[in-house]
User: Which sequence fits this backbone?
């Protein structure tokens, strides 16, 4: 596609409408939303540059105010000019670079995470996984089934989205996150450090031997795509790391099976595992949980009504 360029003095409303059409032509499903989010990001960068230009030498500039989509829409109605750099951002999105790679941020529950090349971009479905994990954790807490300092583990943490959210929303827990990829771990460290999460570099299938039998809750969004099921969206196929996508084997279940087994060993009696999976893997996941020894197995749907998470309980001995 040709480069998207804003005209000199073009109003934001016009630029947004043209950007949306440009992104639709590029095959971007969320074209209008992405155009507004890119405009918000460009406005933030423009404001930050203005603050720096007018600041005192050597002084730390103040935080730039977040610009919401609502603010972008209001500015468009008021005839505000298109921000500097907006055209380049739209061009990158038209090339199917993930929105989160362009802005360097992914919004996840109440957090803003740093993301980029080499790490899986967290999805809204996983926000529901966290919600369900928190429900389990709080139920255990209410029934007096948690130790004084409960241990919670995120296996295959990627960006650290699950672990950071759990630590942020339940600061009384000791949260550990495991990641094999060097590139992903670098992003995870940036996201986890503010919340006191311990990042462990290693293989989730064998990690944390010192915590065997001591963990109250394991949450995981492991790779689960079957080997032959190459994602159609360029943002996923070309930019999410293969290590974070493919679960191994024709059914994509090699790693999820290993995670279920490892989590069972890590869990204390009465602990829970909750894991994300493909919509086609509900029955495979149920069988996996049964084979690993879990009881009280429950399947949960995502917001589109598709099977997305499975939870199970390690029986008390």
Assistant:
């Amino acid at each position: 596609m040709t480069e998207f360029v804003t005209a000199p003095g073009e109003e934001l409303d016009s630029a947004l409408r043209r950007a949306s059409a440009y992104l639709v032509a590029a095959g971007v499903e969320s074209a209008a939303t992405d155009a507004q989010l890119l405009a918000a990001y460009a406005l933030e960068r423009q404001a930050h540059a203005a603050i720096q230009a007018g600041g005192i030498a050597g002084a730390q500039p103040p935080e730039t105010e977040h610009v919401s989509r609502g603010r972008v829409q209001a500015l468009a109605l008021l005839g505000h000019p298109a921000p500097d750099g907006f055209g380049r951002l739209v061009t990158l999105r038209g090339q199917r670079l993930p929105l989160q790679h362009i802005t360097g941020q992914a919004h996840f529950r109440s957090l803003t995470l740093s993301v980029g090349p080499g790490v899986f971009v967290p999805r809204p479905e996983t926000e529901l996984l966290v919600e369900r994990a928190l429900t389990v954790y709080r139920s255990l807490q209410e029934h007096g089934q948690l130790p004084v300092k409960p241990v919670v583990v995120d296996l295959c943490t990627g960006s650290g989205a699950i672990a950071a959210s759990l630590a942020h929303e339940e600061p009384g827990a000791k949260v550990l996150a495991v990641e094999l990829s060097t590139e992903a771990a670098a992003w995870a460290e940036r996201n986890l450090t503010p919340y006191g999460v311990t990042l462990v570099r290693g293989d989730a299938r064998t990690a944390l031997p010192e915590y065997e039998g001591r963990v109250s809750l394991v949450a995981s969004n492991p790779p689960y795509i079957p080997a032959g099921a190459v994602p159609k969206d360029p943002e996923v196929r070309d930019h999410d790391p293969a290590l974070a996508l493919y679960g191994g084997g024709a059914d994509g279940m090699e790693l999820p099976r290993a995670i279920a087994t490892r989590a069972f060993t890590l869990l204390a009696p009465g602990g829970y595992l909750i894991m994300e999976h493909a919509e086609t893997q509900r029955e495979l996941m149920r069988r996996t949980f049964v084979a690993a020894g879990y009881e009280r197995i429950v399947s949960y749907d995502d917001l589109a009504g598709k099977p997305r998470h499975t939870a199970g309980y390690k029986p008390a001995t």
The CA atoms of residues 12 and 135 lie 43 Å apart. Residues 12-95 form one domain. The chain has eleven helices and nine strands. Residues 31-53 form the longest helix (23 residues).
